[in-house]
Design goal:
Low-confidence stretches: none
Mean pLDDT: 93
Main location: cytoplasm
Oligomer: single chain
Number of helices: 13
Strand order of the largest sheet: 6-9-10-15-14-13-12-11
Structural class: alpha+beta
Catalytic activity: tRNA(Asn) + L-asparagine + ATP = L-asparaginyl-tRNA(Asn) + AMP + diphosphate + H(+)
Bound molecules: 4-amino-1,4-dioxobutan-2-aminium adenosine-5'-monophosphate, magnesium ion
Keywords: Aminoacyl-tRNA synthetase, ATP-binding, Cytoplasm, Ligase, Nucleotide-binding, Protein biosynthesis
Strand content: 15-25%
Shape: elongated
Subcellular location: Cytoplasm
Radius of gyration: 27 Å
Distance between the termini: 36 Å
Order of helices and strands: HEEEEEHHEEHEHEEHHHEHHEEEHHEH
Protein name: Asparagine--tRNA ligase
């Protein structure tokens, strides 16, 4: 039977069975006794399987002895208990068929050695063949599955919000404009000097920066909903934690206040980390060995500790009293920078912190104004080692106050009539938050650069693959 490497190593297939495995060669070693040992990976799990290929194979001299890293093969043989350390089973090969050779083994980029992360970004199409990117990819998948499972179990409904929009949900002006290439397909407009994108839709359109406004409408009908999809921001920040294209998870809950949202964010993150520890122990063990010694214990500590909650005003006072020399100023009314966020969660409390009630002028127009008139019901979750991982808020559900905030930010009402409707037809207190999926992957895998948390990173100047 054809089986995955993971299945062959699992113990579920009895020793003595005939199996066929297919994948890519990691290493080949020839023994003096006229045998070759080939490590084969198909990415189904962390561990490759060892094939023991005897010289008696008809293509031993012509092919098997020429296999190099990256060659694709199909191997059939008997599954047997292994004497080798670190693996329970190996395969005594009876047939090895080469599906694809590596053209020039000397220059094949993925050699069996440690490569720098910078180098691997240049071969983003081949880096999934490394141990590290195999592990990160499986952990990312595990997290995505756990996201859907958590919300499903909690009674949330997944809502798919549009990628092409007309509104700037965050009001930060970091929009990519959408345009068409083919003039002949334009339903509107005339030839010559047309704005292709605008004329296709009859108005100017952009790639979404957040599905929040759209998903709010669904929360005000289905009560508990979430989006999980690609998000685009043309922010010209070449940092280790910003991407131009990233995935965001945005739950939105009717009748929820800030306290409920902070509780949800805590329960949610802990569920995700527990899922990874339970389901990807092999990959996490490798991460702990190669990337960050404390990767597993850090997640365990995260799960065990209750989140700290700090008011923004208190956070500013703490930062000012810290005696720390920060690059950016600390002053009530200014946004917290990564260095401040990290000091709060790392130096001050040593665990995740929820900072609440930020000054109204530095936060988005849709956030609910507090009774003090100068702060909004916003919350950011700051994690040690990374800073902001979640941003959220209670939404302004009162039409007059929403209108006032839109006017204050110079937002044109006519683009948001549908959003105002939600405050005119059965408005209720509600709110939600956004979790950056790649920041989550970075955190779990101990990655220091967000470009390594997504298969094909998009950053200023980079869209190669
Ligand atoms: O704080 P942000 O901008 O919040 C929103 O977009 C709200 N609409 C969310 C909501 O309330 N429904 O973004 C939320 C999270 C951040 O905390 C961060 O983790 C991530 O999205 N994020 C980015 N991740 C990678 N690259 C970028 N350029 C990011 N910008 C935000
Ligand atoms: Mg934010």
């Amino acid at each position: 039977t054809i089986t995955s490497v993971q299945e062959a190593l699992s113990g579920r297939i009895p020793a003595g069975s005939q199996v066929t495995v297919r994948g890519w060669v990691r290493t080949r070693r020839d023994s003096k006794a006229g045998l070759s040992f080939v490590n084969l990976s198909d990415g189904s799990g962390f561990h490759p399987i060892q094939l023991v290929a005897p010289a008696a194979l008809p293509n031993y001299d012509s092919e098997v002895r020429h296999l190099t890293a990256g060659c694709a093969i199909v191997a059939t043989g008997t599954l047997v208990a292994s004497q080798g350390q670190g693996q329970a089973f190996e395969i005594q090969a009876e047939a090895v068929e080469v599906s694809g050779w590596v053209d020039d083994p000397e220059t094949y980029p993925i050699q069996p050695k440690a490569h720098s992360m910078e180098f691997l970004r240049e071969v983003a199409h081949l880096r999934p063949r490394t141990n590290l990117f195999g592990a990160v990819t499986r952990i990312r998948h595990c997290l995505a599955q756990a996201v859907h499972r958590y919300f499903h179990e909690q009674g949330f409904v997944w809502v798919n919000t549009p990628i092409i929009t007309t509104s700037d949900a965050e009001g930060a002006g970091q929009l990519f404009r959408v345009s068409t290439l083919d003039l002949a397909n334009l339903p509107y407009g005339e030839e010559g000097g047309v704005d292709f994108g605008r004329d296709f839709f009859g108005k100017e359109t952009f790639l979404t920066v957040s599905g929040q406004l759209n998903v709010e409408a669904y929360a005000l009908a289905l009560s508990k909903v979430y989006t999980f999809g690609p998000t685009f921001r043309a922010e010209n920040s070449n940092t280790a934690r910003h991407l131009a294209e990233f995935w965001m998870i945005e739950p939105e809950v009717a009748f929820a206040d800030l306290d409920a949202l902070a509780g949800l964010s805590e329960q949610f993150l802990k569920y995700l980390f527990a899922a990874v520890l339970a389901e990807r122990a092999d990959d996490m063990a490798f991460i702990a060995e190669r990337v960050e010694k404390s990767a597993v214990s850090r997640l365990e500590a995260f799960i065990a500790a209750p989140f700290e909650r700090i008011d923004y005003t208190d956070a500013i006072a703490l930062l000012q009293k810290s005696g720390q020399k920060f690059e950016y100023p600390v002053e009530w009314g200014l946004d917290l920078q990564t260095e401040h966020e990290r000091w709060l969660s790392e130096q001050h409390v040593g665990r995740p912190v929820v900072v609440t009630n930020y000054p109204e002028q530095i936060k988005a127009f849709y956030m609910r104004i507090n009774d003090d008139g100068r702060t909004v019901a916003a919350m950011d979750v700051l994690a040690p080692g990374i800073g902001e991982i979640i941003g959220g808020s209670q939404r302004e559900e009162r039409l007059d106050l929403l209108d006032a905030r839109m006017a204050q930010f110079g937002i044109e009402r006519e683009h948001y009539e549908w959003y105002r409707d939600l405050r005119r037809y059965g408005t209720v207190p509600h709110g939600g938050f956004g979790l950056g999926f790649e920041r989550l992957v970075c955190y779990v895998c101990g990655l220091s650069n967000i470009r390594d948390a997504i298969p094909y990173p998009r950053t200023p100047g980079h869209a190669t693959f």
